[in-house]
Amino acid sequence: MIRDLTSAIAAAIAALAIAGSAAAQDQLLDPNTLRPSLDPARTVNGLAQTPPMGWNSWNKFGCNVNEQVVRDTVDAIASGGMKDAGYQYVVIDDCWHGTRDADGFIGEDRAKFPSGMKALADYVHAHGLKFGIYSDAGAKTCGGRPGSQGHEYQDAITYARWGVDYLKYDWCSTGIRNAEEAYALMADALRATGRPVLLSICEWGNNRPWEWASKIGNMWRTTGDIRDAWAGRVTYSLGVMDIVDRNEPLYPYAGPGHWNDPDMLEVGNGGLSDTEARAHFSLWAMMAAPLIAGNDVARMSEATRAILLNKEVIAVDQDPLGRQGRRVRDDGDQEIWSKPLADGSRAVLLLNRGAAPARVTMNWPEIGYTATTRAAVRDLWAHRDVGRVRARYAAVVPAHGATMLTVRP
Ligand code: GLA
Fold it and tell me: Which CATH architecture best describes the domain 326-408?
């Protein structure tokens, strides 16, 4: 009897041990347990409670960026009204890099940046702005400069010493690297410096970053590169409408601290008419997108300035509720978009993709109000109160254009 009991207990213990090790093994094999984004201790850095605003060198200057361009841009942003409108980060994109030293620390290209990055960062900060830089999770950047792979902690230290506040981290030359691991590693390296650095994830939406990046970075590109055109894809580059159609369905993933990034603005770069540029800027605001100007802000036209500095449209982008707006009606070339705002009102966009002007009517129930509601309508491009109206609002929207409103019950 006792022997029976003993052997039964021994058998039970053996079974438990097997079950335990099997469970432990399962856990090891479960890819979810290895995912940094599932670590409950991981948080974002508290930055970007509203979508980041600033300027980036790439769309206009590409690899020709240099110290003079950046200084001119800083002067223009600080004194020309952009800073007051909320533009804050001055970001140098690809091609600033020199070589690594004998210990592996990265240096700047001194021919293009004769004063060095530290001095340039000081210049940016002295103007009350923040300083951003670019690197890549692979061996080389997209422009063929040294990437950060294998040098993540060293590069983070260098950036912190220079005074970097924002890192755009690209995805060229990454081979079979796992994106979540690569971005988490750089996020950890930046965090370890103790300097708050906004992390802009740029892997073009290849690995669905909206599903894992909210505890790793502050924004993630959702598409290939934007091109300075209303519509149409050319290899990896997409027109404004093509980007909109890819970024719109991702609205549930955006929120304070972590935003969908449909790429930098092309306003003022020459490929869009002023009407198209207003629609582009309006859509980015409706999508709570980062507003990163991509033009030569030191030499822009008055029309471009009026677009980038429309504070009413910017306020929609920067609304503290942090909800990404979405398309609520699609009639082909005409669309209605709605974005809920913190005060209970809505920003509304009437979009006309067609080649001729079109009359577009939006009905209150489409934006979540009953038809009997009386609401104050304001036109954000005309800067005009339209009046208090019931049930619906109609406007003639120009070809390739948008009418942007707030509707406030
Ligand atoms: C990629 C990025 C762009 C830009 C270039 C620089 O294409 O998506 O935004 O940073 O690299 O080479």
Answer: Sandwich (2.60)
